From TrEMBL:
GO molecular function: 3'-5' DNA helicase activity
Family annotation (InterPro entries): MZB (IPR018973)
Record-annotated MrfA-like Zn-binding domain positions: 173-252
Pfam families for the chain: MZB
Source organism, top-level taxon: Bacteria
One GO BP annotation of this record: nucleotide-excision repair
Name the UniProt record assigns to this protein: DUF1998 domain-containing protein
UniProt feature coiled coil, ranges: none
Amino acid sequence: MVSTETYPHRFVSLRTLSDKRYHILNDGDRQVLEEADAYKVIEEFYPGAVFLHQGDSYLVTDNDHEQQVVHAVPTTQNYYTDAIIRSDVVVQNERGHRDYGDVGLSFGKVVVSEQTVGFIKKSFHIETEVGREYIDTPEISYETMALWITVPDAMLDRLTEGGYDIAGSLHAAEHLLIALMPIVVLCDQRDLGGISTILHRDTLKPSIFVYDGHIGGVGLTESAYGRFRDVVSLALDRVTECPCKDGCPSCVYSPKCGNNNKPLDKNGARVLLGLLLDRLDTTTGGGA
């Protein structure tokens, strides 16, 4: 079980750390292995993480955020680790909104909060899970820009009638939008993040958020907001043309997923994206 209580020392503003570099220190010989920014430390160099450096494996034993030092020791473990990340998005200011029938598309300023709550151990050789652990790390928070779409009840009813998992369909659609958006806005997939939820506290509806993975935003989702129809069309093409049965790394699986790609419903996402594209094509977006 992971505690959800909030303590001042367990919260870190990424803005205050954005200009600082951490030293990844080998405690065995006191040599600095590499440097990393705060975001990479939170996502890759958390306590318990196993990482490779120049072909050698190292185990992270501690993070000192005051001194910006990550302590690591050589290890002979035959696994690597993937973080389990809990994410949340709070809308601060909606700067644009369009209604496509009963589908809402918005753009604005948000606060993203992320916390590494555990990690999965995966074998180097066969890429299978060999264990998992849960940890307590600081939550990071930063302001950025995002677009988000709200899904109407009528579409949820269509998913339910088809026997599709609603949460898995939203989640898989989120992955597809993030994967295909870089083609439209010319960026790397790692520059974007996202969440999907059956009920969001601010929209009060099922929602998919995609946000700029940089403090303050760098214009990526703002550009995608103006070309969202293109993004949805590309995402639908990808999931429709992929020959796999239930999802794979070529369509709905994401190497960045903090939920270990669960739940995902590839076929539900295909239906959902088809319904969204139909709304975008048959209705005129009213609003700013």
